[in-house]
Design a protein that fits this description.
Length: 372
């Protein structure tokens, strides 16, 4: 019996140890499982955080990229062919550039080239612009416009300081538009009013002989001469043309004109405008007064003019060019513009030197300090 009790106790102890060992293993396994679960959760959280940060970084990169590639507008290159340098054409070019800058800001680059009065050089400049692929050409004066139009039928051409586009472009059935890649602004002041101005200052009964002085190389000057001749003859004048081929002939032709004429009329002629100093030195000693077709010529050698603003005209041409560039407006169907504001002006210095009393209703030309 005692032996059986001992065996029973021993078996019970063995079972207790076994149960204790099983409990310990379960506890350890549970801890390991918990730690593994915790680590897995931490790793997952870390991965989620990393993914979120990566997504944020990617979003920031997208935002930066969008800022860099934001469109700033098209950019344009405009070539200007200016026939010669004198105050009227310079003012027209200045107005044209200002208008482009006002409308297009930094998105336009303007290349101004001066042909120094040479029609052949106008053609060279225009062809160079075409070869370089400019977006638009501005022709300042008739020869410059003709060169630009001859150089391209595709690139838009805007003219300024052009008296009559039909004459300049040899268009017979004029309708107000050119029907080609050309449009622009005219510098024509009404020729009937200019004839009236000649009569107002120098009546036909006292100054019966009018000489018209201009360059034969400028078709628009011939056009003006033909038109105003009719108006002057209606006023009772005898009219004679005195023409020169280029600046080399100005002196001799002007001398003859001053000897044979009581008063001279000079239309908007670029060669004459660039030679006003020569004409003045001949006309003043001869006591021959000059009525001018534009203010620049009057400033140099004339008594009076019916003036337009070449700066304003150039500015309007610049607005026209900007519209063509930005909106694709067709120059072929864009009507030629004309100056609306005309001002009667006189040159006080020349009036004083010739002993002429200024007429009421005319504005005195501003005289610079250097001229004084």
């Amino acid at each position: 019996m005692k032996f059986k009790k001992l065996m029973a106790l021993a078996l019970a102890g063995t079972l207790a140890l076994a149960i204790s060992g099983c409990g310990g293993s379960a506890s350890t396994s549970s801890t390991d499982s918990t730690e593994a679960t915790t680590e897995e959760s931490t790793d997952t959280a870390a991965e989620d955080t990393g993914d979120t940060e990566a997504a944020d970084d990617e979003a920031e990169e997208v935002e930066v990229t969008e800022e860099v590639t934001e469109p700033t507008g098209d950019s344009y290159t405009v070539g200007v062919v200016q026939l010669v340098q004198h105050p009227a054409l310079d003012a027209a070019t200045e107005g044209f550039e200002t208008a482009l800058s006002d409308e297009l800001g930094d998105n336009v680059e303007v290349d101004v080239q001066n042909a120094a009065g040479d029609s052949a050089q106008c053609a060279t400049i225009a062809n160079t612009f075409v070869s370089s692929g400019v977006d638009l050409i501005m022709g300042n004066a008739t020869a410059a416009l003709q060169a630009a139009q001859a150089a391209t039928a595709d690139i838009p051409v805007v003219g300024t300081s052009i008296t009559d586009y039909a004459t300049a472009l040899s268009i017979d059935d004029w309708s107000g538009t050119t029907g080609m890649n050309v449009t622009g602004y005219s510098d024509l002041a009404p020729l009937d009013q200019q004839a009236d101005m000649v009569a107002e200052w120098f009546p036909a009964d006292t100054y019966p002989n009018v000489g018209i002085l201009y360059c034969t190389a400028e078709p628009n000057s011939k056009y003006q001469s033909e038109v105003i001749t009719g108006y002057l003859e209606d006023e009772g004048y005898t009219v004679t043309e005195y023409t020169f081929a280029d600046s080399n002939d100005v002196s001799s032709v002007a001398e003859t004109a001053c000897q044979d004429s009581d008063v001279i009329y000079i239309p908007t002629d670029n060669t004459a405008a660039s030679c006003t100093g020569i004409i003045r030195e001949i006309a003043l000693p001869a006591k021959t007064p000059i009525i001018a077709g534009e203010e620049g010529i009057m400033e140099g050698c004339g008594v009076a003019t019916l003036s337009i603003s070449y700066y304003d005209m150039g500015y309007q041409a610049g607005l026209m060019a900007a519209d063509i560039l930005e909106n694709g407006t067709d120059p072929a169907t864009t009507e030629i513009g004309y100056a609306k504001d005309l001002t009667k002006k006189y040159n006080p210095q020349i009036c004083e030197e010739l002993g002429i009393e200024p007429i009421a209703g005319y504005e005195a030309m501003e005289v610079s300090e250097e001229e004084e």
